[in-house]
Amino acid sequence: MKSDLPDRTFAFAERIVRLCQFLESEGIVSSTLMKQVLRSGTAIGSHVEEGQASESKKDFIHKYSLALKEARETHYWLRLLAAAEVVPAARLEPITQEANELVAILTTICKKNRE
Questions:
Q1: Does residue 3 carry a pLDDT above 70?
Q2: Radius of gyration of the chain (CA)
Q3: Which domain holds residue 61?
Q4: What is the mean pLDDT of the chain?
Q5: Distances (CA, A) of 48 to 8, 10, 31, 82, 94
């Protein structure tokens, strides 16, 4: 497992919070959509943190699988914001790329621990 994953998911959550603050302050997107991005984007790190304290391998896999699902969902919402031109795609590209990388990392961790 990447040892910096908890820090990386925390930093990602912070970026998501800042993005949502921007979207809200500018009145750019509906509160429903913004809340979806905020919920899924911040849940990734919370599941990773829970996984760090898991009591069994099964619990670890479960927590990281939840983090993976949230990462996939967040990636979807970020792509949607760009595709709908709510926020310029270039502005969202770095955070969307980070979401994609988190999906890849979490997928690898889940697969390796299921073996």
A1: no
A2: 14
A3: 5-114
A4: 94
A5: 10, 9, 26, 27, 21
For the domain that residue 52 is a member of, what is the CATH number? 1.20.1440.60
d(CA 44, CA 72) in angstroms, rounded, equals 10
Classify the C-alpha dihedral 20-15-79-83 as positive or negative: positive
- pLDDT tens by residue, 24-79: 888 877 788 899 999 999 999 999 999 999 999 999 999 999 999 999 999 999 99
pTM to 2 decimal places = 0.92
Question: Three-state DSSP class for 1?
Answer: coil
Structurally, the chain folds into a number of domains equal to: 1
Integer angstrom CA distances of residue 6 from 31, 52, 102: 28, 8, 11
Exposed e or buried b per residue across 9-34, where buried means at least 16 C-beta atoms within 10 angstroms of its C-beta:
bbebbeebeebbeebeeeeebeeebb
109 phi and psi, to 5 degrees? Answer: -60, -45
pLDDT of residue 26: 81
